[in-house]
């Protein structure tokens, strides 16, 4: 295939729906081979059909990112099969429960920390050697404006703020390599998570996941020089 990402190997987490699915399909249209991870096998299979329909190809990896050893197993399998990873899109996240911090169930907190923060550290730990093996490794981590702190969003906000700090550290550490690392804040987008957070909101007033995929392509291609930034999709849509 031809395209801006032709011949690239791209891993997308949280790929079964929403932003992850839209990005995966766009990357396939741009020529990348996709490694798709999510817990929902049916969603992955539906996306695989859509990718095949546009002439693309994908490898499906049903995976719970909170099972951290499985991330290492995936990294080893990718090394054996491909020997590199050109693009990482770390998109998977959980909203948790919107509640006062003082009322939050410890299980809600732990779940958010494990998926939104710790799994991203484990992805870096496992996949950094593969990104370094690529000619121009690109890593994109999906963050949120909620990281500034909003009432009742304690678990989500805290973990996204932690993610921002973690990724800025990682970007600083690979400054002198061929890897470029950025955070991307989608803004208000028509997703299931957004609907859960704002049940009374008219989804038709929100931009679609498909409308922001171009920003992901910009950050994923070899020509990208941006590094260590928080990129706001709303600045491009």
Q: Could you explain the architecture of this structure?
A:
This protein has helices at residues 18-29, 41-53, 68-81, 106-133, 154-173, 192-197, 213-220; strands at residues 9-12, 33-38, 57-62, 87-90, 138-142, 180-185, 230-232. Helix content is 43%, strand content 14%. The chain is built from seven helices and seven strands, in the order E-H-E-H-E-H-E-H-E-H-E-H-H-E. The relative contact order is 0.15. It has one domain: NAD(P)-binding Rossmann-like Domain (Rossmann fold, 3-Layer(aba) Sandwich), CATH 3.40.50.720. The chain has a seven-stranded parallel β-sheet with strand order 3-2-1-4-5-6-7, with helices on both faces. With 237 residues, it is α/β, with parallel strands linked by helices. Helix 5 links the parallel strand 5 (138-142) and strand 6 (180-185).
Strand order of the largest sheet: 3-2-1-4-5-6-7
Number of strands: 7
Output the CATH class name. Alpha Beta
In whole angstroms, how far apart are the ends?
27 Å
Compile the SSE list and pairings:
Blueprint: E1 9-12, H1 18-29, E2 33-38, H2 41-53, E3 57-62, H3 68-81, E4 87-90, H4 106-133, E5 138-142, H5 154-173, E6 180-185, H6 192-197, H7 213-220, E7 230-232
Parallel strand pairs: 1-2, 1-4, 2-3, 4-5, 5-6, 6-7
């Amino acid at each position: 295939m031809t395209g801006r990402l032709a011949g690239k190997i791209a891993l997308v987490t949280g790929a079964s729906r929403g932003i992850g699915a839209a990005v995966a399909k766009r990357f396939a249209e741009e020529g990348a081979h996709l490694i798709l991870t999510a817990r929902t096998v049916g969603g992955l299979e539906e996306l695989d059909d859509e990718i095949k329909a546009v002439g693309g190809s994908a490898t499906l990896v049903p995976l719970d990112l909170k099972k951290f050893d499985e991330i290492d197993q995936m990294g080893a399998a990718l090394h054996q099969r491909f020997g590199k990873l050109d693009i990482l899109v770390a998109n998977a996240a959980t909203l948790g429960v919107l509640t006062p911090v003082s009322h939050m169930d410890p299980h809600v907190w732990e779940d958010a920390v494990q998926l939104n923060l710790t799994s991203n550290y484990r992805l870096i730990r496992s996949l950094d050697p593969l990104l370094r093996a690529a000619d121009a490794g690109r890593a994109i981590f999906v963050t949120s404006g909620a990281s500034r702190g909003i009432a009742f969003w304690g678990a989500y906000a805290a973990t996204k703020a932690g993610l921002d700090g973690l990724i800025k550290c990682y970007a600083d550490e690979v400054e002198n390599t061929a890897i470029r690392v950025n955070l991307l804040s989608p803004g208000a987008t028509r997703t299931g998570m957004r609907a859960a957070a704002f049940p009374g909101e008219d989804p038709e007033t929100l931009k679609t996941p498909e409308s922001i995929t171009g920003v992901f392509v910009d950050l994923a291609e070899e020509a990208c020089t941006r590094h260590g930034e928080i990129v706001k999709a709303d600045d491009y849509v």
